[in-house]
Task: inverse folding
C-alpha cells in the first residue's frame, strides 16, 4: 500500500503540471485503488497460523468481494459527484492497480 501511495503522489505531481483538476483527478484515481486494497489487506491479515486456515480463506474471499464492491462504490460516487479529467483519473488508477500486482515481483527479484 505504501508503494501505491508513492505512485499516486508521483502521478499527482506529474499531472499537477497540467492543472490542479488533473492532479485532483489523479489523486482520486489513486484513492479508488488504495482504499479497497487497504480494506483487503486488513481482512487478509486478520488471522494467522495453521489452525486459522479456514478463517484465512474465508477472509480472503470476503475481502476480495468487498474490495470489488468498494471499488464500484467509489467509482460511482466520484463519477456522479466530481468533475474529473478522465485521462488523469484512469491512468493513475491503472498504474496504481498495476503496483498491486507488480510489487511482489519487483521486491523479490534478485540483483
Result:
Amino acid at each position: 500500500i505504501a508503494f501505491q501511495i508513492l505512485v499516486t503522489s508521483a502521478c499527482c505531481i506529474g499531472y499537477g503540471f497540467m492543472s490542479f483538476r488533473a492532479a485532483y483527478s489523479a489523486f482520486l484515481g489513486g484513492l479508488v485503488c488504495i482504499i479497497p486494497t487497504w480494506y483487503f489487506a486488513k481482512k487478509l491479515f486478520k488471522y494467522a497460523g495453521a489452525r486459522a486456515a479456514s478463517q484465512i480463506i474465508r477472509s480472503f474471499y470476503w475481502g476480495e468481494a468487498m474490495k470489488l464492491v468498494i471499488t464500484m462504490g467509489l467509482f460511482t460516487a466520484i463519477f456522479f459527484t466530481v468533475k474529473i479529467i478522465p485521462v488523469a483519473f484512469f491512468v493513475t488508477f491503472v498504474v496504481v492497480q498495476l503496483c498491486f500486482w507488480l510489487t511482489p515481483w519487483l521486491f523479490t527479484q534478485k540483483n
About this structure: The radius of gyration is 16 Å.
